[in-house]
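User: Quick sanity check before I run a bigger batch. Here is a single chain. Can you write out its predicted 3D structure?
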Amino acid sequence: MHADPDTVAVLVNGAPSGVIPVSDRGLHYGDGLFETLAIDAGRPLLWEAHMQRLRAGCERLRIAAPDAAVLADEAAQLCVGQTRAVLKIIVTRGPAARGYAPPRPATATRILSRTPWPDYPAAFARQGVTVDWCGALLARNPRLAGIKHLNRLEQVLARAECPDALAECLMCDTEGYAIEGTMSNVFLVRGGTLITPDLSQSGVAGVLRAQVLAAARDRGFDCREAWLRPAEFEAAEEVFLTNCIIGLWPVTRLGERTYPLGKITQTLQHALAAARAITFPD
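Assistant: Done. Predicted structure follows.
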């Protein structure tokens, strides 16, 4: 079986459908979570890491996590025959009557969709990207920090102000600390140390972010998470972005500051590709 790579396919609670009840709390309140995975050669990359984050997010929000075997089977149905595509998994608390109070018991909704691979230029990964800071800020909330919940209006507003000429915009929190990009995690290298923002108060702890930190430590690089001001990026020797779809994009320009294609950035990029954690552009 070979599916058309340009076809959008959706399963709602295991059945082919593009419909959910209008009473679903994911629609009304963003009451749920999602994962976005790269499909490569018919399989979802970093499946176990994504499932671990999904289960942790469900536990945090007190939503019943989908059965692991059922979810794996449904994902396999959408991945078969796909050379390269995107798999998105959404879990909501499910339909309920009006009001914020969660229903008891609740019947979670699971939505799996497959969409075509985005047409990002191969040069983004090979030659680097231009980014800048945006004015939209991320609120601090440790109860939601790190998980990939459905409330993404902050990113929507940030992306709306991001000029087309930029590959990505970086966001700060309301205290002025650098946190992440609108769709990515951000790293810098300074004095040979790999540093990424502390996400204990806001932001998404990306699956690939964790893979980068593990790969760096395996290769003997000093790594840490820290509170970073935007000005600290001025002193950086290298900057790069990550997520599971873009892989790793070197940043060659941030505002008026330019950066080289750094050694640590390239080492980690090739390490992730060799481990099949990311797809490297042809």
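The two ends are 25 Å apart (CA to CA).

User: Great, the batch can go ahead then.
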